[in-house]
Specification:
Chain B: Its main location: membrane. The complex is a heterodimer of chains A (about 280) and B (about 325). Chain A has about 280 residues and is mainly α. Chain A contains 11 helices and no strands. The chains are: A mainly alpha (about 280), B mainly alpha (about 325). At the A-B interface, helix 4, helix 5, helix 8, helix 9 and helix 10 of A face helix 2, helix 7, helix 8, helix 9 and helix 11 of B.
Chain lengths: ~280, ~325
């Protein structure tokens, strides 16, 4: 963290934004939101932002701030679960493909190529349309899209790591392949994987928001940033805050993740450090 | 592989043949995945087509329908009959629009293709100059502008930008060419270009960011090469140096990145075509999903994947043409 603040002020700004949004999301998980994000209250429709309703209210009289906070919580949960899944599966795939080579490499490579043949959003969309729609299956649909990316970024380094002396030494001392992979190869992949996690999180948030905008994400009435923006389309001129609040928050979330990702790359990736 | 005949050996080992074979293998995998994915949906074409009415079918009616749709066949047979039909141009039939999926696709594909080309042109117009500016050591504003645009491009979701632009242009300038029926480039070129402008701008802005970043990195890298110093020393004017020497050599990563962004374009097209009512291939998939017309979804997704794979193959060939070093290796 201190290295991050020294090398990349932008990365630090990203951390600040994310901490802020995490605090807002935490409100929803702790049940400390000012209003129920789902309960409708028709008398207070389309109230402009004020002290009582920080971001105003929507067409059903629901508090936009509470909905945005719950939406951030939802988006973050889905993105984190999706990327965690993709990281574990993809990194394992890259490890096995790069370390065993031969048949394993061919098999993993084949699956990766097939998944890469789909435009990312289209794959997530098709999967989401097939699966039951709840937050976990949405996360799985998004995860499948990002698995091949993790395979690709880890496989190359594994190929070169397995030729390094200390790995050969470990082979010579008779450690099992899995021991070598997990103890000597995997730790060296950490920086690459961390950078990829940060960048993938930002894409996962965008994908989730796009899916729910198209009506294939988190089903209503559960608040989701994407579906809030969809509903606000026709209300822009009556109640602009219904579009501005979720829009600004989704952009802020992705900006924070992108800044963090770039900052981590500048800090952790030796190649990008030279060229400055 | 051990092949004795030297001519055959050269053909088998040639990069192009291996790439094409690999691509065919990938496409087969794509077909399997698409097929399996849509079979995983609870219910079948009959329940999807008839909805709750399917429950009222007599066993005999149901059997007749199963026979009609080929659902009585084993899955593997269904798969190969679908695949075989694809090769004869039979992509299925859309009951809602009373048209074959091939017809639908032939109308939609050129629209999306035009949108993609338009977006790429806009993205290059935004990304490359800004990327070169961002790489310049003298201009701090240029650098900052590059950073801001690339961060914005990466962070603003296409659907948000599209929604905002559509409302703002319609309300403030009365500009809403997408409000009326869609005109193709042949029918009404002027209206068509107006209708394509905002969607292409949204998609182009999204892919301008990676192009900008790639341009910046590539230009920075090329500029520190010896031949640039030599060119400068022998008195090549700065403008000519930047374009002929630096940009030309930075072109390979830029072309590769642009090709890679094609996937984003095809995915983003689903969102943007929906918002701006552009009848392209992305909208066809989404409509298929919404109306539960799986024959449409299945074939259209396959067509899109095919287009994507072909573009990747083309990008590969293209940078072999641009860069003699890749050609030699």
């Amino acid at each position: 963290m201190s290295a991050l603040s020294r090398r990349s002020p932008a990365g630090l700004a990203g951390v600040v934004i994310l901490v802020l949004l995490a605090a807002v999301a935490a409100l929803s998980y702790l049940g400390w939101l000012p209003y129920d994000p789902i309960a409708q209250h028709p008398p207070s429709r389309f109230l402009a932002p004020s002290g009582a309703h920080l971001f105003g209210t929507d067409q059903f009289g629901r508090d936009v701030f509470s909905r945005v906070a719950a939406g951030v919580g939802n988006s973050a949960l889905i993105a984190v679960v999706a990327v965690a899944f993709a990281t574990v599966v993809g990194t394992l795939g890259g490890l096995v493909a790069g370390f065993y080579r031969g048949f394993a490499d061919g098999a993993v490579g084949g699956v990766t190529n097939v998944l890469f043949a789909f435009p990312p959003l289209l794959l997530a969309l098709s999967l989401a349309s097939v699966l039951d729609r709840d937050w976990f299956t949405i996360a799985v649909a998004i995860a499948v899209v990002y698995v091949p990316i993790f395979v690709r970024v880890t496989r190359g380094p594994v190929l070169s790591l397995r030729e390094i002396e200390y790995v050969k030494a470990a082979v010579a001392t008779g450690q099992s392949r899995w021991q070598i992979m997990l103890r000597h190869v995997l730790p060296n992949l950490t920086p690459i994987v961390i950078i990829q996690v940060a960048l993938s999180l930002s894409w996962a948030v965008l994908t989730e928001a796009s899916l729910s905008f198209l009506g294939l994400g988190t089903p209503p009435p559960a608040p989701s940033l994407g579906s809030m923006i969809f509903e606000a389309r026709s209300l822009v001129f009556v109640a602009p805050w219904t579009l501005v609040a979720p829009g600004a928050v989704v952009v802020l979330l992705v900006v924070g993740l992108n800044l963090l990702g770039d900052g981590l790359r500048d800090t952790l990736d030796p190649r990008s450090r030279v060229r400055r | 592989m051990i092949v004795r005949n030297p001519v055959v050996r050269r053909i088998v080992r040639s990069v192009v043949v291996r790439r094409v074979a690999g691509t065919l293998g990938t496409l087969f995998g794509v077909a399997v995945l698409v097929f399996v994915m849509l079979r995983a949906i609870p219910g079948d074409q009959i329940t999807a087509g008839l909805g709750t009415e399917a429950a009222a079918l007599t066993p005999a009616q149901r059997q007749a329908l199963e026979l009609y749709y080929g659902l009585d066949q084993p899955l593997v047979a269904q798969f190969f009959s679908w695949l075989g039909n694809l090769f004869t141009g039979n992509l299925g039939y859309s009951a809602r629009s009373q048209q074959s999926v091939l017809e639908l696709t032939l109308h939609a594909l050129p629209v999306t293709f035009e949108l993609a080309v338009f977006s790429i042109v806009l993205a290059l117009l935004i990304g490359v100059p800004l990327g070169m500016l961002a790489a310049s050591r003298t201009s701090a504003t240029g650098n900052a502008a590059g950073q801001v645009v690339s961060l914005a491009g990466l962070s603003i979701p296409a659907f948000l930008l599209a929604t905002t632009l559509l409302s703002v242009f319609a309300a403030s300038f009365g500009f809403n060419p997408n409000g009326q029926g869609f005109a193709t480039l042949v029918e009404d070129p002027l209206l068509n270009l107006q209708q394509m402008f905002l969607p292409a701008l949204v998609l182009g802005f999204g892919i301008a960011a990676p192009i900008l970043r790639t341009t910046r990195t590539a230009v920075l890298e090329v500029r520190s090469d010896d031949f640039v110093r030599t060119a400068r020393a022998k008195g090549v004017p700065e403008r000519r140096l930047q374009v002929r020497h630096v940009l030309r050599n930075a072109l390979v990563p830029i072309v590769t990145m642009t090709g890679l962004q094609f996937g984003y374009l095809l995915g983003g097209a689903v969102v943007v075509e929906q918002i701006f009512s552009v009848p392209g291939i992305g909208r066809q998939v989404l409509l298929g999903i919404q109306q539960k017309e799986y024959a449409v979804v299945q074939s259209t997704v396959l067509v899109i994947a095919l287009a994507f794979v072909l573009v990747n193959l083309l990008t590969d060939v293209l940078y072999r043409v641009i860069d003699p070093r890749v050609r030699a290796s």
